[in-house]
Amino acid sequence: MTDTIADYLTRVRNAIKANHRIVEIPSSNLKKEITKILFEKGYILSYKFEDSNVQGAIKIALKYHPVSKQSAIKNLTRISTPGLRQYAGSEKLPRVLNGLGIAIISTSKGVMTDKEAKAQKVGGEVLCYVY
């Protein structure tokens, strides 16, 4: 597998379409950071890191509206791919849905959202959009 972030996003997207409550994903440090950001911003209900086997796993509890049963995540889009990396400076960071969504950026100071990167005046690789 060459693009593990795209696999992560696809597993979450497929679980949402199938109305699953929990999705299990192979673990990596970058995926753990993305999961923490999704939890902090309220897109997922909870998460758990399991290091039982060699690689470990991330269990994510997806968040749905109690009445309408719609997911908190409407769209997950991979931006930077292994074949075409997308970088943005601190002044040119993208705004997702006019500020309603988030862009997850991998910077020299760690993985953060577009708003945090703009506040710290750092740029980096634009990993994905979430809204």
Topology of this structure?
Layout: H1 4-17, E1 22-26, H2 29-40, E2 44-50, E3 57-62, E4 76-78, E5 87-88, E6 102-107, E7 110-113, H3 114-120, E8 124-130
Antiparallel strand pairs: 1-3, 2-3, 4-8, 5-8, 6-7, 6-8
Care to give the gist of this entry?
The protein has 131 residues and is an alpha+beta fold. The chain is 25% helix and 31% strand. It is globular and about 40 Å long.
Structure description:
The chain is an alpha+beta fold. Helix content is 25%, strand content 31%. It has three helices and eight strands, in the order H-E-H-E-E-E-E-E-E-H-E. The strands form two sheets. Strands 4, 5, 6, 7 and 8 form a five-stranded antiparallel beta sheet that branches. A three-stranded antiparallel beta sheet has the order 1-3-2, with helices on one face.
Which features does this protein show?
alpha+beta; 5-stranded antiparallel β-sheet; 3 helices; 8 strands
Number of helices in the DSSP assignment: 3
Q: Determine the fraction of residues in helical runs and give it as a percent range.
A: 25-40%
The end-to-end distance, rounded to whole angstroms, is 26 Å
Q: What is the global morphology? A: globular
Structural class: alpha+beta
Q: What summary fits the major beta sheet?
A: 5 strands, antiparallel
Could you state the order of secondary-structure elements as H and E? Answer: HEHEEEEEEHE
Mean pLDDT: 95
| Count of β-strands | 8
Low-confidence parts lasting 5 or more residues at pLDDT below 50?
Answer: none
Gyration radius (Cα, Å) is 15 Å
Strand residue content: 25-35%
